[in-house]
Amino acid sequence: xxxxxxxxxxxxxxxxxxxxxxxxxxxxxxxxxxxxxxxxxxxxxxxxxxxxxxxxxxxxxxxxxxxxxxxxxxxxxxxxxxxxxxxxxxxxxxxxxxxxxxxxxxxxxxxxxxxxxxxxxxxxxxxxxxxxxxxxxxxxxxxxxxxxxxxxxxxxxxxxxxxxxxxxxxxxxxxxxxxxxxxxxxxxxxxxxxxxxxxxxxxxxxxxxxxxxxxxxxxxxxxxxxx
Length: 227
Description:
33% of the residues lie in helices and 21% in strands. With 227 residues, the protein is of the alpha/beta class. The protein has one domain: 3-Layer(aba) Sandwich (Rossmann fold). The mean pLDDT is 96.
């Protein structure tokens, strides 16, 4: 396990029409990969899920670049999709600059995973070797795969990590959808919900966030070797 360094506060110009937003860069000693890591729709870069996920990823050798969107920086509303897409592109570019040659990946929890995949489907994100989606929001109401339509256009390696109790990713539908995608890996986290909270009946003794970091870092190693 690597020793994490203190996170460095930074600013990110997410969109020319908006003031800079907050960001955090954390690079552990001996880091092997870097990840631009975005938060979910109702969250911020400081949320406990984001802080916890960043910490376990760093311990597994992944440097992380967390960031806010303009709407989460001001604490209200929701940015139009073009602004969110511009934000994730800016975040990936800044993470690449900070990574200093480390293999670069991008993704995030829920909405941010979806924004990175949408951005990639419209125009490849420069320098990114693969996308990581923690709890991809396949649907918001009744199960359907409309939100996954763009995923078939992607040619970069994709990693999806979903809880078996995630109400935004019905297991049978998501398994069938992901199986049809090129270069996609779907990992199910036993008893976890959309925020990766598990039940006491979880069979594995491995903490959920440790499992997320282990699977993610192992996948990154494979992608980097193949690339």
